[in-house]
Specification:
The complex is a heterodimer of chains A (389) and B (247). With 389 residues, chain A is an alpha/beta fold. Helices cover 30% and strands 21% of the residues of chain A. In chain A, helix 8 links the parallel strand 11 (212-217) and strand 12 (233-236). The chains are: A alpha/beta (389), B alpha+beta (247). Bound molecules: nicotinamide-adenine-dinucleotide and zinc ion (ZN) (2 copies).
Chain lengths: 389, 247
């Protein structure tokens, strides 16, 4: 089959590799019909996720047709159309039982690596380095899905791929980011980053009852989408100081909750960001937390900081004093995708949201390297790339 | 190593050493206190919260034998150590690992007690053949396609709680250990603790054996326990072996 393989920073290639096989009784094989490029893939593309190996197949937002199931998969059949959560979870451990699927105990074969770095291992992830299991990803013609009996969500007739594809990651991720804000009537939510995750966070914040949502980015077409498609008030942080603007727009009190939908590769305009870039370049610091710092300072006292943006390692100069003395609550983590699949599918079916609104590019799998290039550099107004194998 | 004050007795009945902040500070017993070492072993085996890392070089086998023999017959332990030192087997590797498994004690104990099951999750084991109630024959994969073999004997067994074993004379690698199953708080599964000791002979074999048990035996036992957990909770061991990758 054809698959997109990683070979180093800014070097991804479509290659011919072996077809995946069933390796365990709870596996299924999917013939992929649609797959997307995620902001998380950019962290790998840019070389900031350790433990990648040359030849690793990328991709964690994919769906398709079930072509084979293992002996223990009874609730899904050959021929079913299904979406695949990007988190791999067993369904029966302490964490899965408590609906914390991205913290599954049993899906990372390389748990020891993560334990060394993090103390404990989160779940395995598709196409996301050996630290998270080294699973082959879904930017390919076929993929093996472990624990398919609890992971795969069968898609009813009448819904196009594009309407359900993002149930695999970014819609639940934006939704969980908003849910983590514990939104109360009258709340104002500020969202840093108007990439796909930020955009879904804005929509979700409104769904969950926010009265106002303020969105921060600098890319014009993304800000425009936040405003026009998601009804956010927007701030271009290159024109004004985002922190000051947010404070002014919230009567000096600050937003009730702030979402960091930017993550470890934040772009910055201040001195601190130069410092971060220098340190990250020589690997003295693994992550550039410009957005996170702003979020903490902007958030109102007693408010919530929700972090869907991915962080991998060690961060410098986090204003812990501000966080502590303002009594902030922090919520974060990889998304518990399994938990959101059905409720969010229902919202799609009821027409509350059409998640395809942010797709700007539809490419062939062969053109995935070009997709990475334009998504990374925000060329050609690229916001979200969907690939068809 | 630092010595720690003795505190009250543990729920399991064995005395325990803790640094619990509530307990009145007592003068630390001198480490001449061989009894203290023995008590700490017995506490570890019997269910105390104490961890291995605080223990001085002392034979696990001796401690196991002593406890199985009824209480703290400390002489057993010292005698054993003497023998090992005479044989030049003083290079002992001790490993302790604990994992919490979301299953009842009995289910885990019963699976483990059928020693034939162990190679399903202990990567380096090729086979375990049960000879009789107490004896079993173990074959492990060694580097360069070779095997190491030994007979092991159960030296203590408490149903649904503890299995302790030791290799018998003539083993390629002298080893002993125990596995202990304890319910966690709030019915949240079972803590499975494994403590192992290898006495590695010197020379070339030692190097081979060191490889066999890995540069980091802790990690290997940890991985084995992870696989045990995966098998018991998820019904299979997570893997990527055999999946496609690019050139
Ligand atoms: N938690 C999860 O499970 C999960 C799932 C998917 C994605 N993510 C993460 O979410 C983050 C966003 O993903 P995405 O797909 O939207 O990526 P993206 O790269 O398309 O979006 C990031 C956006 O942040 C903007 N930005 C950069 N620096 C900024 C700053 N200082 N202030 C405000 N905006 C800034 C960029 O212009 C861009 O529009 C990534 O870190 C990604 O890894 C997390
Ligand atoms: Zn993603
Ligand atoms: Zn699980």
């Amino acid at each position: 089959m054809k698959a997109l393989c990683w070979h180093g920073a800014n070097d991804v290639r479509v290659e011919t590799v072996n077809d995946p096989k069933i390796l365990n009784p709870r596996d299924a094989i999917i013939k992929i019909t649609s797959t997307a490029i995620c902001g998380s893939d950019l962290h790998i593309y840019d070389g900031y996720i350790p433990t990648m190996k040359s030849g690793d197949i990328l991709g964690h937002e994919f769906m398709g047709e079930v072509v084979e199931v293992g002996s223990e998969v009874r609730n899904i059949n050959k021929g079913d159309r299904a979406v695949v959560p990007f988190t791999i979870a067993c369904g029966s451990c302490f964490f899965c039982e408590r609906d914390m699927w991205s913290l599954c105990d049993n899906s990372n074969p390389n748990a020891w690596m993560a334990e060394k770095l993090y103390g404990h291992s989160p779940s395995g992830l598709f196409g996301y380095s050996h630290l998270f299991g080294g699973y082959a990803g879904g930017q390919a013609e076929y993929a093996r899905v472990p624990f398919a009996d609890v992971g795969l969500l069968k898609i009813p007739e009448g819904l196009a791929d594009e309407q359900v594809l993002f149930l695999t990651d970014i819609f639940p991720t934006g939704y969980m980011a908003a849910e983590n804000c514990n939104i109360q009537p009258g709340d104002v939510v500020a969202v840093w980053g108007c990439g796909p995750v930020g955009l879904f966070a804005i929509k979700s914040a409104y769904m969950l009852g926010a009265e106002r949502v303020i969105a921060i980015d600098r890319v014009p077409e993304r800000l425009q989408m936040a405003k026009e498609q998601c009804q956010a008030e927007i701030i271009d942080y290159e024109e004004v100081d985002a922190g000051e603007a947010v404070t002014e727009m919230t009567g000096g009190r600050g937003p009730d909750s702030c979402i960091d939908a930017v993550g470890m590769e934040a772009h910055g305009t201040g001195l601190d960001s130069l410092f971060d870039q220098a340190k990250q370049a020589v690997r003295l610091e693994t992550d550039r937390p410009t957005a996170l710092r702003q979020v903490i300072v902007a958030c109102r006292k007693g408010g919530t900081v929700s972090v869907p943006g991915v962080y991998g390692g060690f961060l410098d100069k986090i204003p812990m004093g501000a966080a502590f003395n303002k009594g902030l609550t922090f919520k974060m983590g990889q998304t518990h995708v399994h938990h959101y699949l059905r409720p969010l599918l229902e919202r799609v079916q009821q027409g509350e949201i059409d998640p395809s609104f942010l797709i700007t590019h539809r490419l062939k799998l062969e053109d995935a390297p070009h997709g990475y290039e334009i998504f990374k550099h925000k060329k050609d107004n690229c916001i979200k790339v969907v690939l068809q194998p | 190593m630092q010595s720690q004050p003795l505190s009250g007795s543990e729920s399991q009945g064995a005395s325990d050493l803790t640094t619990s902040p509530g307990s009145t500070p007592q003068p630390a017993p001198q480490e001449t206190g061989q009894v203290s070492q023995a008590e700490r072993w017995s506490s570890l085996i019997g269910g105390g919260a104490l961890v291995l890392s605080g223990l001085r070089q002392r034979s696990l086998r001796g401690a196991l034998l002593a406890i199985a023999g009824g209480g703290l017959i400390y002489r057993g332990a010292t005698a054993q150590k003497g023998i090992q030192e005479e044989l030049g087997m003083n290079q002992s590797i001790k490993v302790e690992k604990t994992v919490t498994i979301n299953k009842p004690v009995a289910e885990l104990y019963q699976f483990w007690r059928k020693f034939e099951n162990l190679p399903h999750f202990m990567k380096h084991l090729q086979s375990v053949t049960v000879v009789d109630d107490r004896r079993s024959h173990w074959v492990a994969k060694a580097p360069l396609g070779t095997n190491v073999e030994w007979d092991a004997e159960i030296i203590d067994e408490q149903e649904n709680h503890l299995i302790a074993w030791a290799s018998v004379e003539g083993a390629d690698v002298d080893n002993s250990g125990f596995v202990r199953f304890q319910p966690t708080t709030g019915n949240r599964g079972t803590e499975v603790k494994v403590v192992l000791e290898y006495n590695v002979p010197g020379g070339a074999i030692a190097a081979a054996l060191a490889k066999l048990f890995g540069e980091e035996p802790e990690q290997q036992i940890g991985d084995d326990l992870h696989r045990f957990k995966q098998l018991m909770e998820a019904g299979e061991v997570a893997t990527t072996e055999g999946q496609p990758k690019g050139g």
